[in-house]
Amino acid sequence: MYAKVNGTQLYYSVIGSGTPIYTLHGGLGYDHTPFRPWLDPWAEKFKVVFYDHRGNGRSERMSSMDDVTHDTFVEDLEALRVFLGDEKFILAGNSYGGLLGQEYALKYPNRLEGLVLITTLPVFDYPDQVSATVQSVGTQEQIDVWTNEWPYPVKSDEDLSRIAKTLLPLYFHNFDKRKIDEIGESVVCSAVAWNRAFQHLLPNWSALDRLKDLSTPTLVIGGAHDWITPVEQCAKRLHEQLPNSELIIYENSGHFPFIEEQNKFLKEVGDWISKR
Q1: Alpha-carbon torsion 185, 187, 188, 191, what sign?
Q2: What average pLDDT does range 202-209 have in this prediction?
Q3: What is the mean pLDDT of residues 80-104?
Q4: pTM for the whole thing?
Q5: Which strands sit side by side in the sheet containing 245-250, from one edge to the other?
Q6: What domains sit in the chain, N to C, each tagged with a CATH number?
Q7: Distance CA 121, CA 100 (A)
């Protein structure tokens, strides 16, 4: 389904009923495919909203995103909330989606019953550590792609899809290779969105000095084997800065604990949401 909001068309789907949970996917340049079907069981208790950010996935594409800022994505979410008629909701963001979740919570704290930050970051100030990890654990193909093509401007959606599929196994700790390949094949990529995010928006972004003012109940989630948003640099710092937060580290997960430890994640996070 499509919602015409804030001057664009957002592709979205809604399953279940109950307390609304809006999900924000990572990337940017990807779509909400990695959330499904892993989070679908939440529909037994909650109303779950999935959507692709503007210029991403199956949402309306843009030939240029030069005028798009983090606040643009925040206003898209706010407009979608109005469109769907939810007064208050739980916001759950993974990776770059967690970054956008922080921005929404800082601007519209009164709209949120709770905030779930899944393997995300308060600032990207550790690029050397990330590169060193790829160099130490990646295959030669992965090292070459990381060194020569990321995060340089990507020329096409096809190139981004190839890069994503090459690097995706690194984002998991111990998961079925066939399922990883299936996820990689199903993701719809957008080079324009990727380039805007990683060339212009992320490098100068930080929420560190602003999070202390955010009183929204927040659940911070890390993956013990996550190298792109490492626990020490990300989850623990978020927890330290957020005055009303709890922290869960998934010991057998990388960047996607809702996939690698699905049942445990659904229960623990679902229980936390039910208490809001």
Answers
A1: negative
A2: 96
A3: 98
A4: 0.97
A5: 2-5, 8-15, 46-51, 19-24, 89-94, 112-118, 218-223, 245-250
A6: 2-126+189-274 (3.40.50.1820)
A7: 10
